[in-house]
Queue: 4 jobs
Job 1
Amino acid sequence: MSQEGRGQLRIYLGNAAGVGKTYDMLCEGHRRAERGTDVVVGFVETHGRKHTAELVEGLEVILRAKIAYRGTTFEEMDLDAVLARRPEVALVDELAHTNVPGSRNAKRWQDVEELLDAGIDVISTVNIQHLESLNDVVEKITGVPQRETIPDAVVRAADQVELVDMTPEALRRRMAHGNIYPPEKIDAALTNYFRAGNLTALRELALLWLADKVDEGLQRYRAEHHIRGTWEARERVVVALTGGPEGETLIRRAARIAARSSGGDLLAVHVTRSDGLTGADPAALAAQRRLAESLGGSYHQVVGDNIPEALLTFARAENATQLVLGASRRSWLSATLTGPGIGARTIRGSGDIDVHIVTHSRMGRGRGLPRSRGGLPLRRRLAGYLLAAVLTPLVTLGLVALRGELNLTSDVLIFLMAVIVVALVGGFVPALLAAVAGSLLLNYYFTPPLHQLTIAETNNVLALGVFVVVALLVSWVVDIAARRTRQAARASAESELLTTTAGSVLRGEDAVTAVLDRVREAFGMDSVTLLERPAAPGGRPPPGPADGWAVVAHSGEPVLATPDGADVAVPVSDTLSLALRGRAVSASDRRVLGAFAAYAGVAMEQQRLSAEAEAARPIAEADRMRTALLAAVSHDLRTPLASAKAAVTSLRSPDIRWTDEDRDELLATADESLDRLDHLVDNLLDMSRLQAGALSVFPRPAGLEEIVARALDDLGPPGREVVVEIPDSLPEVRVDPAILERVIVNLTTNAVRYSPAGRQPLLTASALGDRVELRVADRGPGIPEPDRDRVFVPFQRLGDTDNTTGVGLGLALSRGLTEAMGGTLEPEETPGGGLTMVLSLPAAPVLGHPGRADPGRRERGQVPSPPAAAADGGKLAT
């Protein structure tokens, strides 16, 4: 036992069968046993591999539990025996395995959870194709659906995950040498699932998935130890976008930089700033976002008045190693007047983050005057003070030199122009100082008596007074305009942020998490947590600010348990609160956070309503099915009941003496009616179980020709014949034999019913990679292509008005049963006319299953079939 309480889980992760996961697991078991650790083998599947089986020797093996199912005995891990033995370490193979029905748990990983909860360390194995999140990806690559899957969270929660890696060439050599599959299976495996391309893709999936898990652990370690510096364990390239025309050039250049290292990440970020008059074009940003995502990157948006600081904060939060910026579009005059630009200031504060300044066709083509930032930041106010201190003495010196050529009115106007320039640059306060200083200089140097702070003429007093008033009014108007511009820009930035968030939420699957991610990125927080506490009776929250809080969703680390531990807490409702950790926010930011909090509450409510609607969907479907069942019982089942009842009543009648021939005919009528009734009820019950998800299906390897033989035997009394062509070399299929037999009976019965006289239905089978196809073809009238999917709708008899032969469940039930076994059932047109039902089934991974019957006369022969009345339903939809 590794620790008190819960045990530790170690997983050997492989990219395909045969890479050596079980071998490495057993080797680790021997190493621990040699060190004195109490190790047992809970369950190991050697698959007949000699070297693997040899490693089991020397280890204590817990006997397997034997479970009977459908007349066959299966072996599973004896969970109770392992718990009773209570070793320090248990070796449990095939973590994604599905247990036989009747076991305590449905999945083996659930057995492992019980062992871990009991304090037992577990070493297990799993292949990358069994992870739930990669199921559809693996099916697209290999063409084989994986029925045995395991939630990613189970593997991610493991204390150790070790990759068992092998190159495709080495794995194919192992296969060719017979070290993985028996000789009969080697050629098929090498030409299908074990193709070099498939193995390369699976290997890449395994490497990338494990890299993501390692990255999660690294980020968690950095957060726990408060490490803010960049660790270049993995290349992360951040590209800064302004919405300008150079954006696409920057994204492509950043993508090439990220592609230089395997597994590099591309992150595009746009900083929304107080620049309402020169804001980014939303359409251009949307196009650049699509480009970044098409190149495998992600798009982010943050808010910050100091753009270099916002960029570097985001880059460090994402552990970025490189930052890509575009060369400035400002002209030389603008750069001269405003000093270092964003690129230079970003480089100055970048530290260990590499900054790339990328040239483009638009650089240096900005306006001649500097662009206003839409407000009066500190840099502009300082520039205003400096300009006031320099400009007023210079103007005074110039006017003193021109004293003989200009009068007092001209001097006042020139000083007024200087004050307006100061107001435009630095706002009201620097302009006020310039106006006061200008009035004193005018009085001292240009108003008689000169060089004295007195005014001899009333007209001059009025002129100086008007100068001061006009200067203050102009400065006040300039300052108000700057404030209004800043407010409008702030509103525009907030609106743009909310719009972008709404778009990301609509495109995503988890609306609540998307909102929290956007809040964390936009406001530069370490973590954002949505907390909820249950409402007390009457709808009021329970007393106490920290009572009963539960985490609904979160983004970032650490996860907060109560709003009390947050730097910022925004109430959403009486029972919901948004808790943020990272920094304090301004009042205006809290207003935006309030909108986000409300958005998160609405998103959570919508998510719950969607979940409730999804949960109610099976109920509605069950109601619909129940209504259809009642209709079927009230009409379609009445006929066989009435026939059987009439026959039995006639036989029991004391008033009539029946001949032996009549008695046999009545008994045959009753027997046939009851058989039809039994068949219909079986179909109804099975369809109900399928709809409710309660039909147990357990596939196992079986010979297809044996199942076909039994199905044709069950068709009933001799009628027209069925031609069967099944090759001897056909691999076994992994199915539930009893259920597949029933599917074949349904399909063959329909084919017989609609085949014209002298044109027997044909059953053929062939192997296609890891699948086996069984085709049931008839020469009947066929079905138009637009109507083919309708034949699989329950209680549907396409084009059939005969309600006495079934309730229209045969094909609907057949497709449901086939899909439950991991197969597919699709209709096709028979060449030359008619309809072919294509039954595609998974091939068994191991050949040589015992009990395969000799098809005898059914292979390439002719087999009797029942009359059309034996079918359950109408045309091609029994």
Note: Residues 365-374, 538-546, 797-808, 846-878 have pLDDT under 50 and may be disordered.
Job 2
Amino acid sequence: MMNSFGDIRYALRQFRRAPVFTIAAVLTLALGIGGTTAIFTLIHAVMLRSLPVADPARLYRIGDGDDCCVEGGPQDRWGMYSYPLYERLKAAAPEFEEVAAFQAGGARLSVRREGVETAARPLRSEFVTGNYFSTLGVNAFGGRVMTAADDTPSSSPVAVLSHHAWQSVYAGDPAVVGSSFIVQGHPLTIIGVAPPGFFGETLRGDPPDLWIPLQQEPLIDGDGALLRQSVGAWLRAIGRLRPGASVDGMAPRLTEVLRQWMVHDSGYPSNWMADVVRLLPKQVIAIVPAGAGVGEMKEEYGRSLQILLAVCGLVLLIACANVANLLLARAVARRAQTAVRLAVGATRGRIVRQALVESVLLAIAGGIAGLLVAVAAARLLLAMAFRGAHFLPISTTPSLMVLAFAFGIALLTGIIFGAAPAWFATRTDPVDALRGAGRSTGDHSSLARQALLIVQATLSVVLVAGAAMLGRSLNKLERQDFGYRVDDRVVVSLNRLPATYTQPKLSALYREIEERLNRLPGVQGSGLALYNPLTDNWGELIFVAGHPPPKMSEQGGSSWDRVSASYLQNFGMPILRGRAFSPADNETSAPVAIVNEAFVKRFFKSDEDPVDHHFGLDLPENASTFRIVGVVRDAKFAGWGLNRPARPMFYVPLAQNVNYKDDMLKRIERQSHFIGGLMLVTNAAPGALEPVLTRTLSEIDPNLTITSVRTMQQQVDRSFDQERAVAGLAGLFGSVALLLAAVGLYGVTAYTVAQRTNEIGLRMALGADRAKVMELVLRGAFQRVLIGLVAGVPLAVGAGRLIAAQLYGVSFWDPLALGVAAGSLAIAAFIAAILPAGRAAAISPMSALRAE
């Protein structure tokens, strides 16, 4: 024990005597350890952390599909269910003491405090079963949570408010509990406030502000209610396992219940059943642990976080190699001192232990500094990846697991980069202590330092090439042709109007909105839509009159939008064939539609003219519903993926209505008339425009609530927040890796020049000029870099193949990215080597001869 404390005191004295070395080593390690810890912090929060609930290990999710938010047919990976199917599955799972259902996705509702607020606020809500809180094991912070008694059709409407909304929206007013609120035009009572830190069962940006009993969904959604619909799957389910019970055998049993329900009780249209039976073997329910909640964010961000962790791991290896080189050079500089210690009786084990103590202390200091880097880097990543979120329930404060990770990785790196210097320290011959100071001796560590330098160069090529690929991919994503105008376009997201609004009232309201918007100063045009591009989409099965019926698959479906007459033109989406919508396409005229190029390619032969053809949705008897009057250019919508080709789309007039007989289509038709977005042609800034829009819309109807106002360019930028965060951090870490490699090359080259001072002086005394000396030094440096390039390029190609799924318009062997990596390393190497080469060329031959 005393020897250990003595080793630590001795190491600290050595650090004080070499402050430049100490600071350089600690900062180098702080970058590597800090970056790796930052990514692990997010991985822990997103992928590993348990929900803040009672006994999370007993929670299991029924299904693992990540679709959202309403699904009408087979899902393959089932994860959403209709309410009738949820009840069937719940009854077939006696191993669970409770099974709760909750809405997938949720929605923003207009909410105002009765008697206190005149303007409604858009709060995010989630419909849940009455046993939701008891299943999760969550108690109220104030008031009470809902129970099964609150979740009946005859119960008084109630809701539970989130702690975050209670504080941020209502300033922690205790009188909120028990108060009456108007939600989508209907009164309900806030019975409680959820505990701090509880964000629901799903980790996501902007979690629910309000939980409402499931049986109140028909009250809020009116004719568009999903509660009693058999076909519409919109609920997820989590069960709490009974003590001593097991989920073994549950998945096959529930899968069989699902398949029986699909065939006999699903309510699927008869024309679907042949495809449903054909797809039946693929319909499976998995039972997965849900202690960490529903893994939406894990599915969405897991791959990106793994890439960043790998990048940080490579940076950490480069940092370790750099510090190991510093320690090797320091060990050589202290060779005489070590030889004397060996000569007077110090054991080789003591020398090794001392060297390891120094390296571990450096690593721990780097780890402590790295925690500061980790917190800042994690905050930066969250700010980059979730710029549009008002609230994100992810803390960047290091947890115990993160602290343990940081300490463990610091200890491991200290041992890794300290092992080689410790071993080389014992290779010193005590006879060296008796030699003259001016004589050179063998340097056993030279080969190790060269190898570490090559490793740094190799890994730098991989990181810079990968960062260049991701950066080029992001650039191509952002600059692609979306199929509509981005400049001078402002998109406005609206809260959904109350379900009590009738079709005639909506039509009159929309006409007034367009008229008022077009009169606003600086507005050249406007449009209304069910949803704007880059926000959402709906999809339906397509039947074309006179064509064979489609199969129930992706190839048989199309997305669609309901828009006002001038929407497509004002958004810069040109009509390629036929005509645009006009005011004559209204509630008194036959239904018409405009389709995009992808729709034509999928559903019509190359020699067919789609104009004046008819098609319909979901059922054969609807095949003649819409007459195609025009073909519009392809446009990309967020729900399909902006890194994929445009999906088939069709557009129908906002003013028209189809009288369907089928209940499912009646609901869809009804809901599609509640617009979610406005578009303005204007160059006005959103900040200046929002107050004017808020005032104008509130004058038209107090229930028109704005949730966001953005330029289309801002909306595009938000769509690539995750890609931008990954590319930006990969580029940052690639630059750090390049800098560390350059520093390492400089250190090794400078040390080599110092070791060969006498040799260089003799060469110059014998006639070598300064150019030859510089060439000698640069050639030695670039030989190592060339080896790193030769090894790094194939590894970079392999890394590109691993991240190929993240790339858009860029191949995994992208020549430009590989060229940027090679060129960057060559430039950095030249800058790092030219300074020692210049010093070598300035050596005086006479000084070298006198030393010799």
Note: The radius of gyration is 34 Å.
Job 3
Amino acid sequence: MDQRRFVVFLILTMLLWTGFIVLRMYLAPPPAVVQNEHVQQKPADAAVEPEKPAAQPPDPAKPVDAKANAVAPRKRVWLGNINLSSPYNMAVLIDSQGAAVELVELARYYDISDPSGYFGNLALSDSPGRTGAIVNSVTPGSPAAAAKPDDPSLAAGLKPGDVITNIGKLTVTGLSDFEGYFNRHVRPSQQVSVTVQRPGITKPIVFMATLARRPVAVVRPENHQYKTDAGELVQLTYDPLSLLLTLESVGSRSVRQGAKEIGGLPSLLSSNWNVDASGEDFAQFSFTLDDAAMQAIGRKGGLKIVKKYTLAKIPDGAPKAKESKSYHLTLRVEIHNLGSEQEVVSYRLGGPTGLPLEGWWYSTKLHPVMFRGAGARDIVHKQAGGGHKLLGNPMIVSESKARIKNNEPAILQLLEGDNAAGLDYIGVDTQFFASAIKPQPGPDGGPLKFRRAEALPVQDVMPIPKNSLKTTNVSVQLVSDVARIDAGTPLVHEYQVFFGPKDPDVLEQYGLGAWIELGWRVFAFPSLMLQKVLNLLHGLTGNFGIAIILLTVIVRSCMVPLSLRQAKSAALMQQLAPEIQKVKDKYPDDALKQHAEVQALYKQHNFNPFGGCLLVFIQLPIFIGLYRCLSVDIDLRDAPLFPGWEWVSNLAGPDKLFYWREWTWDIISDQADGYLGPYFNVFPLITVTLFLIQQKLFTPPATDEQTKMQQQMMTMMTVVMGIMFYKVPAGLCLYFITSSLWGICERKLLPKPKPKGEGGAGGSTVPALPKSTSPNGSAKPASSKKKNRR
């Protein structure tokens, strides 16, 4: 009776709490959703102002500006296209400041953390001296690029140089107005009108655009903000962009410890490079260190550094564009000796930064080494001739902090041995996306050699709150081996840089199959098998939710014999309960004698007390395998249970009925500290409720206070487990819900085991009850009729 009241109390509490939240949501709509309060990724419609160089940390040997490149204007160049009908799988934005990759957006994957409508990346900046926001670039294939003007004589799409003055009836006074409107007020498929003032045209132009889903950005600019102990908000500068390059050494001069570049030389990281040529799928940048710049470090002659990016296209006739080998840039690095004497040079190449943080507060990545922790972003590498290795975010952060306290550079060496070595790959790994640098063979056909390969945080790790350490923006940097460059013979190195999904078919084409980590083999094998079955069922049904339900039915159908054995074991245990109680009453103070007598009773009736647990142990690898399958399968990411619904729109994450972060306490809904997370989820509540119902229906009645206490503890443990697994993927909850419903129906519909002599074909192995017991196994008094006869 106490258990029943406790279950009713829990259900009523959940209903009251849900009603309160829904009422609050109805009366006070929530503000814009913030996925990570500590990490501020640059909005898709904003970028660093073109006239303002990227902020650099203090450098004791700060490079000077290059006269040869001082007049080069800052430009942004787009490669590729995000239109699904284009021959590209992504669009890449390259900034001439440092000739760095600023943004990579995938055409066939969408941002599941931002439901707002997508207009396009415009690299906006405030218009000096007047209202409006200046367009500096337009994503190819975006709604902004396809927007239709009210003047039919004009071409479609916004252009760099346009000044946005209005969005509908809203007057745009600056960048913040534009960002605020598109982050809060719009959804995909919504139509918006944007008014721009174009140079050379007096009349304002009104563009109409239909918004799309926001594509996922594999890398993007990122900055951070934290609250001090006094509650003040501290805004930090933007982290470095991806694939920055500078010289590591020239002759006997090299980068000093703690510095970013060679002192006295112009800055290759923050200066604007010349855009030599560009097209739909390529862009070439160059930076010249003239004779005057080289004389500042005691060298003669000049150097010209060239970076050429070429974007891969989807191969003609590819059966599945989404899985083709077209998720990479080819980076060609050239260093030309402009002098007459041989020069000795090495360079430093930065890795990718700002990879996605989606799901960092609920997802859990696996580390290939037992008892090691992984973060939201980790460093993965493979030295030539070695094995695949992962350096977890927690270790990078802890080691970096220790080095900073000792006044040492916050870098971790990855290469083994003292000599220059080759690398098969190195990069940054997240839950569903990754970026890898794959050095290509050198001019002599052998592997490129590197003096150092390093992992490092690209943000200041000291102010990061402890609960957000796993979100640290980490990256890598490569230091090439020293090369002797003759006059007229350039040094040429090539890299294949992967930016894409962790799809097994895609990764295998790039030799990166080991990047998908499934853990111990005992669980990895069922995970792979379940993944194949799920994909097969999805191919038949077209819906992963239905596929998971069918998978559950298949698994439970195969376990019907075990379920019958478990039911028979439970019934037998119920029958033996009075006899066991008699043994306990007979030997109340002799635990050894009790145990011996109970074991003899079990042996007499051929009963195995652990027989009922067999089903649980067999399902354990399936449960863990399915959990890991859901955690790494890119196909389940963004897979909806109900197409067109925002609820349960991602079976690889929580169901997210609604956002409740602003209506509850931090201890409940904070992303980093909260036990439940910023979203109210329904599936875990349904799962726990069904577990409690199963316990109530199938647990034998307590025969003593000890058994009663054990059953109450089991009920409490179920509730605690529900809280612990509140943020598990919705697909896993769907498996448990289906399995629980199957179990309830199975127990109710299948015939119950009967004691011997009570009918049934062939009898039963369950012993007959003594006549002095009731149907539930408890002792009952003698018949009142017999008393009357006496």
Note: The chain has 16 helices and 32 strands.
Job 4
Amino acid sequence: MSDKMPIYMTQACAKRLKEELRDLLYVKRPQMVETVAWAASLGDRSENADYQYGKRALRKFDSRIRFLTKRLKEAIIVDPVKQAEAAKGRALFGATVKVETEDGDEKRYAIVGVDEIDLAKGR
């Protein structure tokens, strides 16, 4: 049995993370590689701010790419509609629930994974 907690996410979250990964791999990182190559061609790299900044940015991009790749590989994608059918009245991951506050107002909350938390939007 694995000690790791499962990573649940909705289809919308998985799509958003895939789009971010695609943007990093095919747009941002290649542009930064060009910038670093240009900066390296100027000579002395030890005092070249463009080169130093570019290398630092590439490390950040690479770190995020590794994180997203691993996250998406390990994620369990949950369809909220199918989850609602299986819930049988229970509040499971992906469900939207109504809660009555102490002052009688009603609030709606969607039960989502850690990558989707947005308290202002009730997630």
Note: The beta strands are 7-10, 75-78, 96-100, 106-110.
